[in-house]
Amino acid sequence: MSRTPSPTPAPGSPTVRRRGPRLVLVAALTAASLVWAGAASALPDTTATAAAATTDVLVPAPVSSVANGATYTLASAAGIATDASPEAGAIGDYLAGVLRASTGFAVPVSAGAAGNGSIALQLSGAPGSVGDEGYLLTTTATGVVVQANRPAGLFHGVQTLLQLLPPRVMSGTVQPGPWTVPGGTVTDYPRFTHRGAMLDVARHFFTVAQVKRYIDQLALYKVNQLHLHLSDDQGWRIAINSWPNLAAYGGGTAVGGGPGGYYTQADYSAIVAYAASRYITLIPEIDLPGHTNAALASYAELNCSGVAPPRYTGTNVGFSSLCVPLEVTYTFIDQVIGELAALTPGQYIHIGGDEASSTTAADYATFIGWAQQIVAAHGKTVIGWHEVTHATPLPTTVAQYWGPTTSDAALAAAVAKGTKVLMSPANKTYLDMKYTRRTKLGQTWAGLIDVDTAYGWNPGAYLAGVGESSVLGVEAPLWTETVVTSADIDYLTFPRLPAIAELGWSPWSTHNVTAFHQRLGAQGPRWKAMGIGYYRSTQVTWPTGS
Ligand code: IFG
Asked: Annotated active-site positions, please?
């Protein structure tokens, strides 16, 4: 079936567009009639094989996708038509940015009626069933319509649309067309509300630009939370005005003795804003009471001995502890948490709580009790590594499970009293684990994690005594003891992060490792187009061009 390209605005159509304030006068686009050679074949086709055309490339797998046998082709004059909301306009600009770079087309974005051949982004028309993060994506020969109830859902629908376009659409340089989208209807929404990644910027420091690059990668897979591990033994990475040495001195080194670095509060706010523009919420972590050598080295008065230890550039854990009996300790965390909370629009502050081997059990329980009260006093909700269940978690405190086993008695007991769990089992989700013994980067303490291990578990039925209703979602931590560059981040993150993202988004009914291999393989050419140096897992057949 061949046909003339979708109509473009008739010459001279009075379309005047100016972005923000969004003054738009868009004349009704005169739609040239579509001339279809072999129009008879344009009838809807809902056969299973046609359905494969749209769903064998999507990660995460959508709730449902039905092909209609049509094909949409983005024409050089096609535009993006949004509703009048600033959010839809911004999402239109995001999509246009990606399309302009790779198609070389102008891709105008305007508020108003969607003419033939356009891509329409609308914060209306979606079924309530897709909730706040889901969407309805409808593709016909004459246009694409993404509808959602809330901006996050519209943004997620745009990610799906990008995955339905040829992989080279993700290139930063102009590529040849045609820019086709297989026709059909995708109805989609997430299984879990919390779908996260963590970047450890304490062991090695990563710049704002590097974090933004990571955020852009996470957005492709509908991840909606970024946990930044901002402090540890080797580095303090966020400026705190009331304790300036934390960043100025405590941020001055890293694992291996490098220069380290830190975010000014303006830097941190820029990361928060950039993440928000990708519908990702920042979760800052100040790890307490252990993993605190950088803070202790920065202020002698924080130490029980009154003497500051030297800064630490190794990779041991469990040797440091804030001084629980000291009154100044609580002034310290109150002021740190207070400044961080004021910079963090999201509801969570992560207080760490892991590996406090140098804190007595009694002191640990006392400290976590106080720390939770302080976070709550600043209007935030606590996330802590699951050891916080050895203290008395507040009812709202979320326990992030990082153990390598399928049971934890204290956690299960807390869950029985209502604690919610964020699933990060180290032997499934820790992106700093080697893929195989031959992997240069990474560690092995939690085991080797290749694609099938990362994908092969059910977050809603993994931990004894922790049923799906107690699970907030999943998070894939990337610890950076062995990670120094963005290329290192790419290599350890891809292809495993999409597996964790799928476990967080897709219905368990779609879980199928063979189908996942095919869909994950289809991501390879996209990562290549984006310059992401991923690990070519031998468990996946990577198509040519990937
Ligand atoms: N465990 C430590 C991390 C990091 C990690 C590396 C947690 C919660 C091992 N704590 O994971 O600081 O060192 O795989």
From this structure: 355
